[in-house]
Amino acid sequence: MDSKNKKQKILLTGGGTGGSVTPLLAVVEEFNHPSPLYKGGKYEFLWLGTKDGPERVMVERAGIKFKTIAGGKWRRYFSLKNLADIFKIKLGFWQALWLMLKWRPNLVMSAGSFISVPVIWAAWLLGVPILIHQQDVRPGLANKLMAPFAKTVTVAFEKSLADYGQKAFWTGNPIRQSMKLAIRDSRFATHFNIQKNLPVVLVVGGGTGAEAINKLVLEGLNDLTQFCQVIHVFGKEKGIRIGIINYFAFEFLDAERMAEALKLADLVVTRAGLGFLTELSYLGKPSIIIPLPDSHQGENAQMFKDAGLVFAQKDLTPEKFTGAIKNLVADKELQKELGEKMGRVMKAGANEAMVKIILELLASNRI
Fold it and tell me: So where does UDP-N-acetyl-alpha-D-glucosamine get bound (predicted)?
């Protein structure tokens, strides 16, 4: 087969949470979106992830083949689990190496997560080009372990360029094409029985939920539902089932339903995961941001401090939480101001920029 017509194989890896998954899915969706940039290209994708994480459902819904490998996490404190996980990491390395010898990828990509680390090491050993994407402001340990082996590192924020030197490119953070299409869809509120005379507050604690935010919502629910309607995405297996007027509780919302909820929302309450903040920036949604304590989310939240109301979790009581929501939903001018600022936080065009970099890497590695 002529090398110019040969199908290009891209191996994607990440998981454990949805945070390392969504930017890569956004890139795949961009490849599948009609564009002169990659018209006529032939690309095949394969994903390596964890056995029990949420990524399998997300990846397979996107039509991507999914395989699991063993994985371990290195904890920065003493734990006997580190000893067991060393063997899991070694096993994951050999599994990834064997799979790549059979599948022969032209490029390997990761946006973080510990399941990716042995995959990236195996790719480097085989001489396969590697692209790492850095979403958060603070580099995580997984990306620190993988970046030295990468040919290119793309970053969501300009200040992250200093962390990776000349191999780094500021692209912004990609957003799912399915989210863009769903937001533009003419259908409206097909899954929510929303009243038009009350503002809507969407509360999202992340893919696995946020117990502290859930508690604030539930303890303030009697007051909240007097002046607004609450769409509450509380996370997997949290067991919240309350039949109360103006309150809509869900363990999980797929891309289409989340898009509808975002269209409806006058205000969003969220953690500071970069994937969801990117979508809020794209939509220009006024937000209350409560970063996960003692984590990389603190730095993420600081990048949005002028575009949203940022609260430390330890400082919030149900009364203060409810009061902040009440004040913001009542202040249309402040909503407009915060929405406009939110829309300017993230660099635009990340999807296209990342695809161009990928195409350049693939072209430079043709054999």
Answer: 17-19, 176, 297
